[in-house]
Design a protein that fits this description.
This protein has 388 residues and is α/β, with parallel strands linked by helices. It is 40% helix and 13% strand. The strands form three sheets. It has a seven-stranded mixed β-sheet with strand order 2-8-7-6-5-3-4, sandwiched between helices. Bound molecules: pyridoxal-5'-phosphate.
Length: 388
């Protein structure tokens, strides 16, 4: 079959492929501990499920407006205004099936073929994939361990030019768990303001899975709200990955364009899921806080355990639920090592290179698994690595 040439430029998310391979091995009777997939292992809190059932039984089963239900847009506007210290109107919010479409739509709406987009590398693979797919120039900004996986401000300054249309930030960061500081964001904001056509896609999906004092968003800096598309959603914070519910907050005219892209693709987001989203944001937050505390406990167990393994070194992540240990001393390419750990140790992890070329020398381990399984995985990894 002859596919359009752009299809050859479309990348993927390796986590789904590794999960499929792990499932195949499990079907053959092999035990696998899953540290590959980026989703909370908790169930969605009961109050949110109850609200969805209520919505299903009360007629929220029809098409809704492309930009989202007005009542949810209002609740999101209030939430984002409060958490980022800015003033957001409901007309600046677009609700999408998961947060991922905001990535796709924002790049589609803002970036032409000759334009450049700066994105974090290692980073969420879909950024690079979509930039390439649309025929724009993908410009990686390396995130280095010696800088706690925060981007280097001097390096960024050199990469920005008059062709740069979009700068993608992700803090807390997948896959490294790194967090940009308030000072980093202030300096980045100053750089952005020098270029009138430069926008920021600020991926804040892990804003509430944070182990530091406070989440900082670049949108909070003077003049930056108009230049920022905040991407956030329900998947990670409320353990709602399968519901497909996310949103973007942006300048009003861009929101109209993005809603139009939604009309042309998904039409709208499932209405009963949006009602559940209202409950998630306005209802009891006890479960969210409990999940975050549990992630912190697992993080400490995993990082301590990794650092006890010879030739492995892991920084303490400040957010999200991933460890990104340096395994370069083992001397194997990361992909070969990840495959080996699956076959030899029965532990599914991702190669750092699944997140871009600057991920070589690293593995990504998701700690969205029980402390018991994490301890068992550490034991198995240590034994398997001792054989190399
Ligand atoms: N942004 C980052 C950095 C992510 O890690 C993910 C999911 O893994 C997403 C966005 C997408 O979230 P959603 O499942 O809501 O589409």
């Amino acid at each position: 079959m002859k596919l359009a040439s752009r299809m050859s430029r479309l990348g993927t998310e390796t986590a789904f492929e590794v999960l499929a391979r792990a499932r195949q091995l499990e079907a053959c009777g092999k035990k696998i501990i899953h540290l590959e997939i980026g989703e909370p292992d908790f169930d969605t809190p009961q109050n949110i499920c109850d609200k969805a059932c209520w919505a299903l039984n009360h007629g929220y089963t029809h098409y809704g407006p492309s930009a989202g239900l007005p009542e949810l847009r209002e609740v999101i506007a209030k939430e984002v205004s409060k958490t980022r210290g800015i003033e957001v109107k409901p007309s600046q919010v677009v609700v999408t099936p998961g947060a991922k479409p905001i990535m796709f739509f924002a790049i589609l709406a803002l970036v032409d073929t000759e334009d450049e987009v700066i994105y974090p590398n290692p980073g969420f693979p879909i950024y690079e994939s979509v930039i390439n797919f649309l025929g724009a120039k993908a410009v990686p900004i390396p995130l280095r361990e010696e800088n706690q996986f925060r981007l280097d401000l001097d390096e960024l300054k050199k990469l920005i030019n008059s062709k740069t249309r979009l700068l993608i930030l992700n803090s807390p960061h997948n896959p490294t768990g790194g967090v940009l500081t308030q000072q980093d964001l202030k300096a980045i904001a100053e750089m952005v303001l020098k270029y009138p056509d430069l926008y920021v896609l600020s991926d804040e999906i892990y804003s509430r899975t944070l182990y530091t004092d406070k989440h900082y968003s670049i949108s909070s800096f003077p003049g930056l709200q108009e230049r920022t598309i905040i991407l956030d959603g329900f998947s990670k914070t409320f353990a709602m990955t399968g519901w497909r519910l996310g949103y973007g907050v942006m300048e009003e005219s861009l929101a109209v364009s993005i809603a139009r892209l939604q009309t042309n693709s998904n039409s709208c987001t499932a209405t009963f899921a949006q009602m559940a989203g209202m409950e998630a944001l306005t209802g009891d937050q006890t479960e969210v806080n409990k999940m975050c505390q549990e992630f912190r406990r697992r993080r400490d167990v995993l990082i301590e355990g990794l650092n006890r393994i010879p030739r492995v070194k892991a920084l303490l992540p400040e957010g999200a639920f991933y460890a990104f240990p340096n395994v370069s001393k083992i001397g194997w390419p990361s992909k070969k090592l990840a495959d080996y750990l699956m076959d030899e140790a029965g532990v599914a992890v991702l190669s750092g290179t699944a997140f871009g070329k600057f991920g070589e020398g690293y593995l990504r381990l998701s700690y969205a698994n029980s402390v018991e399984n994490i301890k068992e995985a550490l034991d198995k990894i240590e034994k398997a690595l001792a054989k190399i």
